[in-house]
Amino acid sequence: MKEQQAKPTGSRTENHIVVDAPFDLLWDITNDVANWPDLFSEYASAEILERRGDTVRFRLALHPEADGKVWSWVSERVMDRESGTVTARRVETGPFLFMNIHWSYTRTAAGVEMRWVQEFRMKPDAPVDDAAMTERINKNTRVQMALIKERVEAAAAAAAVTR
């Protein structure tokens, strides 16, 4: 009998926000990885390395820290518009043993609920442990989601005016 490999356990964050905008607009803006430096406040650059259908491999870089250090990594993202889901993982994991991300988009009466679930574990020599990274991710995700909501709702309002 083949031995089943256990899934790695780690920490998990889950955050969501409702964006008052059409599904297609929210989907298109948030899945335009090349434009993420204009959408997210934390990214200095996004370089597309490869596209295969609904899969994109890319390098993200954060803005430099006070000491000049720039964190950068490669991720892969698989988008399924029909199901309203995105799965992603870090290919270059940096301080993480692993980082898996699941985004879902659900139509509601108030707009589209965007939910991000991140599962990860920090390496033993990482600058922070799982608990500290969980706190950091939760805090930053709320900031980024609010910014995305503001920017996408403004785009939706502008599009409505031009119709």
Task: Explain what this protein looks like in three dimensions.
- The chain is of the alpha+beta class.
- The protein is built from 3 helices and 7 strands, in the order βααββββββα.
- It has a 7-stranded antiparallel beta sheet with strand order 1-7-6-5-4-3-2.
- It is globular and about 55 Å long.
- 15% of the residues are buried.
Task: Please outline the helices and strands.
Elements: E1 11-19, H1 23-30, H2 36-39, E2 43-52, E3 55-62, E4 72-80, E5 85-90, E6 96-108, E7 111-122, H3 130-162
Antiparallel strand pairs: 1-7, 2-3, 3-4, 4-5, 5-6, 6-7
Short structural summary:
The chain is α+β, with helices and mostly antiparallel strands and 163 residues long.
